[in-house]
Amino acid sequence: MKPIVSVHDGIHVVRDDLFPGGTKARFIPRLFEDADELVYASPPEGGAQTALAHCAGQLGKRATIFVARRQTPHPRSLMAKALGAKVLQVSPGYLSVVRARARRYAADRGARLLPFGLAVPQAVPLIAEAARLIDVAPDEIWCAAGSGVLARGLKAAWPNANLHVVQIGKAVHRDQVGGEVHVYPQSFSERCKARPPFPSDPHYDAKAWELCKARRGSGVVLFWNVTGPAKTGE
Description:
Elements: E1 5-8, E2 11-15, H1 28-31, E3 37-41, H2 48-59, E4 62-68, H3 75-82, E5 86-90, H4 95-109, E6 112-113, H5 123-131, E7 140-145, H6 149-157, E8 162-167, H7 174-177, E9 180-183, H8 205-215, E10 221-225
Helix pairs in contact: 2-3, 5-6
């Protein structure tokens, strides 16, 4: 499906909040080709939860997600559960513990365990393929980064554009993504106070939009919006 692009404040915005499941859902179906169940250890706010749940439901497969136990589950986890995923809360909620539980579950079930940020070999070429369908030739690209998969896909699509990557949480380096890295001052778990003029995840893309607006250069600027907020009240 060709990405939808709209213009806001003079910036071309790729609206993958309008793509069912968001950007990660562009490559997740390939991961189910040789697996009936995918397992993922996620931060409570992580958008991969709903992307996995959506794709599993569409394909009649299973998505199992491990997250840290919270008194009130995060809306992203609630949305994933509503979409049909099995969401298992782990206590104590250290990410190392959550990952260990997910790893043991996958081994016991013979399921496929996915890496952080869904950084799988299929991701970069499929993101690049989708990006090349856009009728925009950007001089400058902005996106958020967790694992850096999206940034690498966009760099593959437009190698001559200036790439700006906003680090949200986990550290990324220029040699990982092929572009300039801007560190957002809040942690991933904190919500962005600024509201973009389009549906955007307040833990992720909204933060990158804030820096894009403040630091953008000249020429044709493109911003990639991965997903919207969870639809269960966030």
